[in-house]
Amino acid sequence: MKTIITILVSTILVDNYIFAKFLGICPFLGVSSKTETATGMGLAVTFVVVLASIITWLLQTFVLNKFGIEYLQTIVFILVIASLVQFVEMAIKKLSPSLYTAMGVFLPLITTNCMVLGVAVLNITQEYNLFETIINGLGASLGFFLALMLMACLREQLELADVPKSLQGVPIALISAGLMALAFSGFAGLV
Fold first, then answer.
1. At what angle do helices 35-59 and 130-160 cross, to 10 degrees?
2. pLDDT tens-place string over residues 5-42
């Protein structure tokens, strides 16, 4: 039980994939302007990361390792992630057309979100078992979701603030992200 809690706290707060590993920055900055789109992206990434973690672990363990073709890991993992994103895109288009329209080009970007591939690869390199893999995938995506929502809330507040013209938009978002990364580094003593 201690290992599970350690993995969760570590991936959500201490080793947050955005603030500590710098993975997933593109959707973090691109979709964090409104909480509605940030929520949709966070849920979609959570679904894809957890499912991709499970499927890639199973493929690595029972196919790639068994037949000695570990060198195909990256290609296989990318194909799995791309397939899952297509499934999520079709589901969101069917269930919530407004969210699909709001997310625009950022939904297919989950395919190239390096955090998704990073989690899948790190699950293997950390030699996690299936349960630890699921927990790591869930924690990583919850950490991504937390960072995305915090940034979206902050950016909505910044629209109402008196920000100097030269810092409006992306510059203030990057400054805010840097300050958030510093704040998250304060959790380093937890694990």
1. 160
2. 999 999 999 999 999 999 988 888 888 888 988 888 88
Quick one: pLDDT band at residue 132, thresholds 50, 70, 90?
A: very high
Q: For 61, left (φ over 0), alpha (ψ -120 to 50), or beta?
A: alpha
pTM over 0.70, yes/no: yes
Is residue 160 packed enough to be buried (19+ CB in 10 Å), middle (13-18) or exposed (0-12)? exposed
CA distance 189 to 43: 28
Give the number of other CB atoms < 10 A from CB of residue 117: 20
With b meaning 16 or more CB within 10 Å and e meaning fewer, what string describes 69-101?
eeeebeebbbebbbebbeebbeebeeeeeebbe
- Phi, psi at 152, each rounded to 5°: -65, -45
